[in-house]
Amino acid sequence: MARRALARVNLAAVERNCERLRFAAGPHTALCAVVKANGYGHGAVPVARAALAGGASWLAVAAAGEATELRAAGIEAPILTMGALSAEELPLALAAHADVVAWRPAFVQALRRCRHAWPGDGPIRVHVKLDVGMGRLGIRDADELLRVAEQVEAADELELVGAMTHLPCADEDPERTRAEVARFAAFGERLRALKPGAILHAANSAATLALPEARLDMVRCGVAIYGLDPFGADAAAHDLEPALALRSYVAALKPLSPGESVGYGATFVAREPTWIATLPIGYGDGFRRAFSDNAEVLIGGRRHPLVGRVSMDNMTVDLGPHPGAIVEGEEAVLLGRQGDERITAEELAGRIDTINYEITTALTARPTRAYDSDGIPLAGDGRPREGRETPA
Fold it and tell me: Where in the chain is the domain with CATH 3.20.20.10?
């Protein structure tokens, strides 16, 4: 049965992407799979399981609720909560047994007061964050951050696990990034005098693939594990496989005569006789209104222009004067492959001057998520269905 909006995720592709990144990182560097924002729109829990199967040994999220979701699904791998945590969120992150990130003395004291929220007898696990140029979270002063680390190390309730930074230009400016990595590595040497064995992590997907000196003890890969190119060009150039396909179907076929229009604002007016296919998917599903008159859709193995404005629940596609064998109920692909044609997240991002991250994370909860492993259907949580096994 056709679904109005279907986001199909191939978890085997996620697993292979993680294997590729794990190999790129090297035998002595751990892979942390970033599954924040509902796994970049792919579904956090199924993606997390696939990433761990592909060699990731850590998971990272931005918010306490994201860590809670993973734990509720039975995932036991180490989880790093990278984002800022409010007074309300902090106990939730700790209850999920998630590592947290500190850079202020006041936060260290808040952690000590929340020891009751941490499960088990061990200390709360803490990473400190140096700001080498992103200018958001963390602090720029290495001396000040070292004092914060000393406070963590001195507290019985806390354990100093490592240090992190966030590289702002790894996909655009390798020389700047090398200087930032060198600054962070210098801080790491000082930190290890305080805490031998502290884990140092800085590299995102772009740095993992392009800058060996940034890999350190662990890499935190997000966009690449989903088969999206961290450089915004061609994922295949880095042996990455896009995991997500977004599909709908032809709900209605209508002839359009010259002078007739479709959609809000009548932005498309036919100049000659043509046929219009209506797809029951729109910006309410996460396919951006900015694609109005500015995208193509695959139907019948061919590209057809999206015409008129994308509305909340529908969009319209121009099939031309001779729609051929296209019928109502036929599959339409907005992202992914059909026949010999493929529409990538990078292509869509280029049309509206954004990045591939935003294309997938924009998907709302309304599209049905379906999971498979190289064509073998999986249950909604990404596990093999009863009586079926995911290929090794």
Answer: 10-227
Q: pTM of whole model > 0.90?
A: yes
CATH architecture of 10-227: Alpha-Beta Barrel (3.20)
Catalytic residue among 36, 195, 226, 357: 36
The string of pLDDT tens digits covering residues 1-40 is 578 999 999 999 999 999 999 999 999 999 999 999 999 9
Based on the residue annotation, tell me whether 264 is a catalytic residue of this protein: yes
pLDDT of residue 204: 98
- Based on the number of CB atoms within 10 Å of its own CB, is 26 exposed (0-12), middle (13-18) or buried (19 or more)? exposed
Choosing from 226, 254, 264, 371, which is the catalytic residue? 264
Give yes or no: 36 in active site. yes
- CATH for 244-374? 2.40.37.10
Q: What is the pLDDT of residues 34-81, one digit of tens each?
A: 999 999 999 999 999 999 999 999 999 999 999 999 999 999 999 999
Contacts made by residues 187-196, CB under 8 angstroms, sequence distance 24+: 187/130, 187/142, 187/145, 187/146, 187/163, 188/163, 188/216, 190/142, 190/146, 191/128, 191/146, 191/149, 191/163, 194/146, 194/149, 194/150, 194/153, 194/160, 195/149, 195/153, 195/160
> What is the pLDDT of the chain when averaged over all its residues?
95
